[in-house]
Amino acid sequence: MKKVKLYIARHGKTMFNTIGRAQGWSDTPLTAQGELGIRELGIGLKEAGIVFDAAFSSDSGRTMQTMEIILKECQQEKIPYTRDKRIREWCFGSLDGGYDGELFYGVLPRTKAFENGRDMKDVPYPELAESLVEVDTANWAEPWPVLRKRIYDGFEAIAVQMEEQGGGNAIVVSHGMTINTFAWLVEPNQPRLSLDNGSVTVANYEDGRFILETVGDMSYRQIGRKILEDVENA
Predict the structure, then answer these.
(1) Residue 143, SS3?
(2) CATH 3.40.50.1240 spans which residues of the chain?
(3) 175 labelled as ligand-binding?
(4) What positions constitute the catalytic site (predicted)?
(5) Residue 232 scores a pLDDT above 90
(6) Is 189 labelled as part of a ligand binding site?
């Protein structure tokens, strides 16, 4: 049986990403720049010779749009493709769609988790999740036990499905905070990185556990960008 390897990409840059709005369960499409960035990713993955056996994304429009571009550029549009709401982004509740500055630097810093001058990067995910629950007037934000289980179960289900089908490579498109949370659940000492759109996090799955290979790798996009530039300059 082949080993199970998940290539987990963050979706392309969207309208809300561009104007700095919190985009949890709300959704906006990729911009022209975002589409180009994912073309670079798809071309880079193809150049690396990576063959995927299956594709998975969240059920958000931005991840599905991203997946469509990746599979087209990789010339692997006919592989099985599944959407799974468990690997959606965090839900920001009543603050979803608001400006990042208002959420992350205005409302959340007034919660208990940010007492004594703690910065966003100093607040662990469990406390950050509870801060969102604390300020969400709509009661939509997920408590940490629910959020943690949803995210881990989603990625584990993908890995188990791949294992049951004989292993292989899966391309998975998800979201920045969701991918970072998954990486933190796998390796709690993993530094919290700001994942770029189109970055790739690779996780191997064997004997019922994940092992991170890379987090936030931009090399595939860089390779694809160089190929596109060479074509334009030819």
Answers:
(1) coil
(2) 4-88+142-233
(3) no
(4) 11 (tele-phosphohistidine intermediate), 89 (proton donor/acceptor)
(5) no
(6) no
CA atoms within 13 A on the CB side of 230: 8
Say whether pTM exceeds 0.85. Answer: yes
User: Which of the listed CATH numbers 3.10.450.50, 3.40.50.300, 3.40.50.1370, 3.40.50.1240 matches domain 4-88+142-233?
Assistant: 3.40.50.1240
Query: Measured between alpha carbons, how far is 14 from 33 in angstroms, rounded to an integer?
Result: 9
pLDDT in tens, 86-125: 999 999 999 999 999 999 889 999 999 998 888 888 899 9
E strand intervals along the chain = 4-10, 54-57, 81-83, 168-174, 200-206, 209-217
Known catalytic residue: 175?
no
Residue 1 has pLDDT above 80, yes or no: no
